[in-house]
């Protein structure tokens, strides 16, 4: 049997410089750490209505809604479900959970009743925030389980439900004090189910802060977001890609986040032109529709300086056709997972190389050779110790219990 390379020969490091990771503050404080600099700048624009909320308004609304959640019995460590399409209310509710020490589990409102019930039971959700059009999917379940339903948009709320607006009128000063721990879970998104049924992923304040910091903090950030950017949010916030790399990263740098409730190529093009979108996070199916649509040539898309594509790889042929539509933009492909938020950035890519690991990703161990032999077979490193090593090196892994 041939010799096996020593461990140091199979360890890869990011080419980007290390950065300081802030691990002693909660997620909402980290995202709004520099709010004094851009308190009156637009934070969220609702693409459907044109309504604009400033950073100061979003921060104040999140504090009030956190107090409103307290009034409904939600305390530190309690789980509530955000069953919403992209909307300003989604942003406010998620940040409110962080303020109150609660845990937000995010779910697709287009799920079947059975799928919603399964996630609500599995996560232990005590309250569900949704739109009135989805209430029939959860009404019987909520009644049986004693789960509170909070609805967005309608006043008064449907029978048996509470109104989002009512909770938003709570006194922020009544918010209960929270004994914060960086390893408290703040988000409980569910995986896409690639290798089986969707699974709840416990993401802590520490892990999400680390992940966002890798992307936008330091002297050489990966995403190069700026406070004067207009960031398109058409990807669903209930998935980790948009929640992390669009919403949280955008908030951290003070960018303007333009929210679309769903993808439609015509309205998307109109919004890009109207609001001069500079950053466009997409996925390959959207890119394909973009390339195929005859509408694209009728709009001025010159404001777009960067396109991020994630969730799945984009082929070279599709990439070339897409970039021909917006030749002044830079394209980067991003690889990320719900479970650990490891990121591979392709902004330094070549025709044969994706790019590099993000800052602060200390090491990646190759554990399987082309001949099928794993390095763990050759070295005294079982599955448990390998996982332990990764968790120690990479604080943006999920919490495992």
SSE layout and pairing:
Elements: E1 11-12, H1 27-31, H2 35-38, E2 42-46, E3 52-54, H3 55-71, E4 79-83, H4 88-100, E5 103-106, H5 113-123, E6 125-131, H6 135-145, E7 148-152, E8 162-163, H7 164-168, E9 185-187, E10 203-204, H8 205-216, E11 230-233, H9 240-253, E12 256-259, H10 265-275, E13 279-282, H11 284-292, E14 306-309, H12 316-325, E15 330-335, E16 344-345, E17 356-357, E18 364-365, H13 375-378, H14 383-393
Parallel strand pairs: 2-12, 4-5, 4-6, 6-7, 7-8, 11-12, 13-14, 14-15
Antiparallel strand pairs: 1-18, 2-3, 9-10, 15-16, 16-17
Structural features, described:
The protein has a single domain (7-393), classed as 3-Layer(aba) Sandwich (Rossmann fold), CATH 3.40.50. Helices cover 34% and strands 16% of the residues. It has 14 helices and 18 strands. The strands form five sheets. Strands 5-4-6-7-8 form a five-stranded parallel sheet, with helices on both faces. A five-stranded mixed sheet has the order 13-14-15-16-17. Helix 3 packs across helix 4 (88-100). The longest helix is centred in the first third of the chain and has 17 residues, at 55-71. GO terms for molecular function: 4-coumarate-CoA ligase activity; ATP binding; trans-cinnamate-CoA ligase activity. Belongs to the ATP-dependent AMP-binding enzyme family. InterPro entries: AMP-binding_CS, AMP-dep_synth/lig_dom, ANL_N_sf.
